[in-house]
Amino acid sequence: MPRATVKQISILQSHASFSLQFTTNAPKNINIIISKVQSGATYDEIFQSLMHDQACSTIPISDTLLSHLLHRFKDDWKSALGVFKWAESIKDHTPLPKSYEILLDILGKTKQIEKMMSLVNQIHHHHHHHHHVTLGSITKVMRRLCGVGKWQEAVKIFDDLHTFGLEKNTESMNLLLDTLCKENKVEQARKIFLELKSCIPPTPHTFNIFIHGWCKVKRVDEAHWTIQEMKGYGFSPSVITYSTIIKSYCQDSEFVKVYELLDEMKVHNCPPNVVTFTIIMCYLTKFGEFEEALGIPEKMKSFGCEPDTLFYNSLIHTLAKSGKIQEAIYVFEVEMARFKVSRNTSTFNTMIAMFCHHGKDEEAMNVVKNMGNLGDCKPDIQSFNPLLKMWLRTRKVDLWLSDLLDEMVNKYNLSLDLCTYSLLIHGLCRVNECEWAYGLFKEMIGKDIKPRYYTCALLLEEIKQMKNYDAADFIEGYMKRMKSS
User: Which of 305-319, 377-391, 402-416 has the lowest mean pLDDT?
Assistant: First the structure.
């Protein structure tokens, strides 16, 4: 086993010794709590260990503290639920509706649908007087139900809104229709709308939801019909309406139709906006039409549109893709500041991805450091994925990688997600660090993040070659359970 590996695994498995850079006393408290959360424990064990801990009992629990903790465990539902139950049990502390919303979303995202539903019912019964179930929470729940194919249950929740002290009105109807359309259930949404429209008045947004839905399922003709229906209600199509259809044409690389529609917008006195042009530039880049994509900023100027952050993010991406690195750096460092357009995490991530793609690891690392120092943008998991990929590709594995992972978890308080775990396990297998990969595999399962079947198969092959039969048995057992479920 290579020298660094044991140390690396222990770094990854210990949640302790955090060096969080916050200004108040909160970080110390957060670190104390995090250090008590054992990876791989059940949520009840986590709850119990916090309940019976001397140090934890002296910590004043605040909404900020709880939201930091939930953010920290956003890909690890057992820890999130355990910590939340503990916070909830402390007397004089009732978590904010926002915290419930975040926890419901974590449970939904990790497909713990029964736990999510029982939490909704619990909030509903315990806080009946405060009406703690917010429309935001219900929306998250409906979205997650639709996401796992339980759309009828989402509709049932909408039907029962009054029991939560919420009303069926245009806002909640639109949220339901939007949820269904985003999961491609446009026809079902349409039926529901036809039942509701006599008692709940639609808004322009209602029709835009359908236009988006029809475009998503590649039925643009239906989207055009919806525009007519919208006009029948006395509403004019907006930039959003047209931009949705433009995006649909872009996806099919029908740019001639795109330019025709731009002209039509001008005629109807509904000129395109910066979002419209960002969409067009993105797709031209995607289809490798770099020259045409780089002509979009001029075209946009001729319509009198000002660039915004998302437009610049796309422009940097386009320049990077077409190999114009210096120009991308110029836009990032000079032009955005000159036009007083702020940079967000994605702006930095686009630069990081570009540098990594060209093997410039120093430059990429500098962007991450700058981001940490600027304070207004914090690196997220996407900031690090290109770096991890690059170092695994160039085989700079040993200490570099463990330091980087240590920094991600400890300094920036990030929790690894499915994508990052997969990337690491695949990359480590390729560079013969499969013991380390196996450590991550077990950590991942402990957090109930389910690896892809392909990842398991790849790791199993490598582990067998190492003649580690116990590990091989463990992986095979896991794969069998995966298949049967």
Answer: 402-416
User: pTM of the entire structure?
Assistant: 0.78
Rounded distance, CA 351 to CA 344, Å? 11
Calpha distance 298→447 (Å, rounded): 49
| Cβ–Cβ < 8 Å for 365, 336 | no
pLDDT at 26: 63
Residue 149: count other Cβ atoms within 10 Å of its Cβ: 10
Contact 47, 82 (CB under 8 A): yes
DSSP 163: G
Q: Give the whole-angstrom CA distance, residue 122 versus residue 116.
A: 10
Whether the Cβ atoms of residue 64 and residue 102 lie closer than 8 Å to each other = no
313/274 Cα distance (integer angstroms)? 12
pLDDT per residue as tens digits for the range 399-449: 778 888 888 888 888 889 999 999 999 999 988 889 999 999 999 999 889
Tokens of residue 61, six digits: 């629990």
User: Average of pLDDT values for 96-107?
Assistant: 90
Report d(CA 36, CA 59) in Å as an integer. 13
Give kind and range of the element (H or E) at residue 289.
Answer: none
Closest to 280 measured CA to CA, from 270, 267, 269, 298:
298
Looking at residue 7, its pLDDT comes to 34
| Whole-number CA gyration radius for the chain | 25
* Apex 135 CA angle, 133 and 136, nearest 5: 95
Return d(Cα 71, Cα 244) in angstroms, integer. 32
| C-beta atoms surrounding 360 within 10 Å | 14
pLDDT above 50 for 14: no
Instruction: Give 60-71 as a DSSP string.
Output: PP-HHHHHHHHH
CA distance linking residue 427 with residue 392, whole number of Å: 6
Q: Environment class of residue 288 by beta-carbon count within 10 Å: exposed (0-12), middle (13-18) or buried (19+)?
A: exposed
Please tell me the distance from the alpha carbon of residue 425 to that of residue 434, in angstroms, as a whole number: 8
Return the percent helix, strand and coil in the chain, to nearest 5: 70, 0, 30
- Position 45, amino acid: E
